[in-house]
Design a protein that fits this description.
There is one protein chain. The chain has one helix spanning about 1-35; strands spanning about 45, 55, 70-75, 75-85, 90, 100-105, 110-115, 120-125, 135-140, 150-155, 160, 165-169. The protein has about 170 residues and is of the alpha+beta class.
């Protein structure tokens, strides 16, 4: 029983290491795909106020971090540096965030904005643009804040307002 408990603990530890290795490999793949150099860091603090979605990383200006730089994780765009000294990052889910995007399926342009609830909303699309659940949303590169083609996510819901052309994506 003792050996079985020890093996279970080792298995849990190995699974954690495998997950970390996969996340790090994803970051290396992003670096190769977009041909950029950067620094890696870990989240060491999270904001406690509901109005701002900001995290602090364990890197800063001494590592080459500058205000306005995009922050990218293994799954895609995370946010933007707003304070390089301590590397405070405004997440894309923050109500003050806005990212120029395109739908990968039809190249329609729009803007993804964060919300107080922490959800992302796709706005400013032409009302005639077809949007489907599962459509991939990527950065457009417009505005110069973010690299072009970085994954932001997928459409999970399209709600049409009755009797109008308004919709929530």
């Amino acid at each position: 029983r003792d050996e079985n408990a020890q093996l279970k603990a080792q298995l849990a530890e190995l699974q954690e290491y495998r997950g970390e290795a996969q996340r790090l490999q994803g970051l290396l793949d992003l670096s190769d795909k977009y041909d950029f150099s950067g620094v890696t860091g870990r989240v060491i603090g999270k904001g406690t106020d509901a109005w701002n979605r900001v995290v602090t990383l364990n890197v800063g200006s001494a590592s080459g971090v500058e205000c306005g730089l995009p922050v990218i994780g293994g799954s895609g765009l995370v946010g933007q540096v707003i304070s390089p000294l301590t590397c405070r990052v405004r997440l894309i889910s923050d109500p003050q965030s806005g990212v120029s995007v395109v739908l990968q399926s039809n190249r329609a342009e729009g803007v993804v904005r964060g919300s107080i609830a922490g959800l992302l909303y796709l706005e400013e699309l032409d009302t005639s643009t077809e949007v489907n659940v599962g459509d991939v949303v990527i950065t457009s590169g417009l505005g110069g804040s973010y690299f072009r083609g970085v994954a932001l996510g997928t459409v999970v819901n399209v709600i049409n307002a009755a009797g109008t052309s308004d919709r929530t994506i």
